Amino acid sequence: MIVVNTETVPGRRISAVKGLVQGNTVRAKHVGRDIMAGLKNLVGGELKGYTELLVEARREATSRMMDQAEELGANGIVNVRFATSSITQGAAELYAYGTAVVLEDA
């Protein structure tokens, strides 16, 4: 599966558009991460616990989007975008979406 954030894939042509595909996940903060983030705010620096949380969420949302594309018979996804939103205090959604396509060699 080729997944890109561009409209085209070099060396390939789009022979069919299968439609919009999406994947999402909602993640809640962990109390331990909150405590460590509070301490890190005092001295500055990267909040690694939250970085890891976002990496996991991005992977899960992307995987779900790719599964949906495969169900449609696509072998690629173009124009991939990510969005986040707050669901409730302490929980956020990561949403991945793009256009499922069938790619052929140019």
How does this model look, in words?
- The chain has 106 residues and is an alpha+beta fold.
- The chain has one domain (2-105): Hypothetical protein apc22750. Chain B (Translation Initiation Factor IF3, 2-Layer Sandwich).
- The protein has helices spanning 31-43, 48-71; strands at residues 2-3, 12-28, 76-88, 91-105.
- It has a four-stranded mixed beta sheet.
- A hairpin with a 2-residue loop joins strand 3 and strand 4.
- The longest helix has 24 residues, at 48-71.
- It starts with a strand and ends with a strand.
- The model has no long low-confidence stretch (mean pLDDT 88).
Radius of gyration: 17 Å
Share of helix among residues? 25-40%
Helix-and-strand structural type: alpha+beta
Q: How many domains make up the coordinates?
A: 1
CATH class: Alpha Beta
As residue ranges, the low-confidence spans are none
- Per the CATH scheme, the topology name is Translation Initiation Factor IF3
The main sheet orders its strands as 1-3-4-2
- Count of strand segments: 4
Binned strand content: 35-45%
From the spread of the alpha carbons, the general shape counts as elongated
Mean pLDDT: 88
- Biggest pleated-sheet summary: 4 strands, mixed
C-alpha termini separation: 17 Å
Write out the CATH superfamily name: Hypothetical protein apc22750. Chain B
Work out the helix count: 2
